Amino acid sequence: MWRSMALAILLSAQTAHAATLEVRVVDEQGSALAGETVTLRPLQMKNGPLPTGPLPRADTDFSGRASFAGLAAGTYSVNLPFPKVPGMIPPEHDPAAPSREVVLTSANDVQQLELRIRRGVDVVCRLDVNRGPAPSATARFRQVDSGTERAVAIERSGRAVLPPGDWQVTLETDPGLLFESLEIDGLELEGPQAQLELAPGDSAVEINWSYRAQARLEGEILFDGPAVNTEVRAHLIAAGDWDGLAAPDASNNLISTAVDESGRYSMTLPAGVWEVTVEGRQVQETYPPFGEVELAPGADFRLDFEVSSQRLDGSRVEVTVFDPRGGRISGSWVELWPLDESERGDEPVAAAEAGFYAPAKLDGVPDGDYIAVVGHLEFAEGRKRVPGVSGEKNYAREVRAQLKPAGTLLGLATGIDGTADGNVTLVLEREDGDLDVLLSDPELREKARRVEARSDERGNLRADGVWPGRYLAIVEMNGDDSQHRIARFRAGSAMRPRVVLEVVPDRSQSLRITVLPAATLEGAVACVDADPPEALDIAVLHYPHGSSGEPTQELLLRDVTVDAGAFPFEATPLPGGDFGIAVRPAGSEGWMSVVHGNQPRTFTVSPGEQLRTGLLPSACRFPAPVPPAEDTVDRTVD
Q1: Distance between CA atoms of 10 and 378, rounded to whole angstroms?
Q2: For residues 286 and 309, what is the distance between their CA atoms, to the nearest angstrom?
């Protein structure tokens, strides 16, 4: 008995604290909508936390009513997320819908709510691409007046029911696609975005987007020898950017396809720059070693390869090249040399070019210990020991080699008025003796000893990949007016024709180059010797600190022959300053200063000036030649 009474009291307490909500669902005319599923979402509870578990749901009856009993006091949101009547707008997507929140304040609270839903416009979105799988896409709608936003997922097609009004519509899709056209109810518009005007009474609107998708790469493998099993590999080097749409960031993306029996291949690739190689255990070498293709969305590109499939005797060494920071790099040259210096000749054992993802393939390597030498125009030579190559025909050895850091020189060439000069070449000549360069490639060896950089239209010049060490920097003038200009390095307050630089790895240095009007010194040297030489070497001496200082040889004119009793000369281009003349018989040793009277003669030339000296009487005297010694052999006359 007591147990029955306790259960009755508990049920009475639960019922006393349980509220009831009745929801009636109608259309714009007030007609009941039966069979609609209404969902309650608790927003805030009066006593205690939000309940967990499934949301309360109930279907409307023939009168459009759905009832929820046993609710705790609190605030609830009434939702109808998926109207079953076609073309009806879900209340949460309708800015004109009345509030859908209800507050149950106390026990035994019974409330009613009318949920009125409007008929909207059925908007169907379709996406068409020219090839490849259907891309994922999202159509975004934004109502201009209210700011209400809707997002519709599209898998080839998608559907949204929107209230009447003005809407902005955009499409977000996989990057790497190129927009082609947009049609709304058959009317073609410009661009992938549009303004959508939905009027009351409209039943449906159809939006069609057309895009070009991935590119197609195809070609043929021509075998110089037996056809062997090969595959074509494509590595994405740089993502494409077409009309503001970028291809996926897939720097490690690799796509490969087998070559069929006829030597043909075909592959579909996203937009971007791709490095394409032919791979196979029996592939000796390919031409080209690799192909670099730039593919736009929807493009068709053909790339053929010639493949030598007859393997040489010996092993294969595959060398992958990395920059000093460990990143992959394209366009590196790889040579394989014997590790023992006494076994090295003038040429490497094998040499090949490495691509961004394609290693250099060095075939025909006999048994022995080697060193892989890698070179690149932007870095210094790197080396990697490769001991214990077996020399077996089917043996392959994989090696990772790293380039060494080099230095960078930056320069700015301007005139004395600060205007840029784009006709200046900076020349760096190695000055610190023999350089340990193992690479035999002529271009790389020359880069290690001499570097040139030409200024652009803004006067900027840049020399990358300068090997560490000491260099003599000089300037050469380019262009038709090169004889009328001369360049000097600005070092503090001094202007120097050349400077010595110490290039440090992985560091940039700056040079300031000033271009001045060139001077010209013309004249003739007259010799008063009874038997003057047939030709003179004439040196133009520059006195950078005035005639009392030490001169430097500015220009050497060789084998100047006599003309009208004198040796004419023209020295150009020269900077402004003090100059003198020294001479010697052509090809002899030792210089003699040209004098006027008994005083050394110097000339002051202004920048851009053309100075004529005229003849210089008593300019030079050469010591008389020493006669040969007389024959002192005794002669006996019988």
Answers
A1: 86
A2: 9
Taking the CB of residue 14, how many other CB atoms lie within 10 A of it?
A: 11
Tokens 């007046």 belong to residue = 145
Q: List average pLDDT for each run of 10 residues in the chain, which is 638 residues long.
A: 40 57 90 91 87 88 92 89 82 78 84 87 88 78 87 86 89 78 88 85 87 87 84 84 45 77 88 88 84 86 89 82 89 92 90 85 89 94 92 82 93 90 92 84 91 92 92 89 84 78 90 89 78 85 77 82 84 84 84 65 79 64 54 38
State the maximum Cα–Cα separation within the chain, in Å, rounded to a whole number: 180
Contacts of 578 (CB under 8 A, 6+ apart): 542, 543, 546, 547, 602, 603, 604, 605
Q: Which two tokens stand for residue 516?
A: 């001045």
Which SS3 state, helix, strand or coil, does residue 387 take?
strand
What type of residue sits at position 208? N
**What are the DSSP calls for 446-478, one per residue?**
HHHHEEEEE--TTSEEEEEEEPSEEEEEEEEE-
Alpha-carbon span 423 to 485, nearest angstrom: 10
CA angle 175, 124, 24 (to 5 degrees): 125
In this structure, what are the phi and psi dihedrals at residue 4, rounded to the nearest 5 degrees?
A: -65, -40
Residue 3, both tokens: 């147990």
Q: How far is CA 349 from CA 316, 412, 565, in A?
A: 12, 43, 63
Which two three-digit tokens encode residue 596? 């006027």
* Residue found by looking up tokens 């690479």 in the block: 439
Burial of 90 (0-12, 13-18, 19+ CB in 10 A): middle
Residues 413 and 461 sit within 8 Å (Cβ to Cβ): yes
Alpha carbons 618 and 28: distance in angstroms, whole number: 121
Look at the block and give the residue holding tokens 């999202």.
Answer: 138
DSSP characters over 60-127: --TTSEEEEEEEPSEEEEEE--S-SSTTBPPGGG-TTSPP-EEEE-STT-EEEEEEE--B-EEEEEEE
What integer pLDDT is reported at residue 239 of this predicted model?
A: 74
Task: Please state, in angstroms and rounded to a whole number, the distance separating the CA atoms of residues 106 and 94.
Answer: 30
Is pTM beyond 0.85? Reply is no
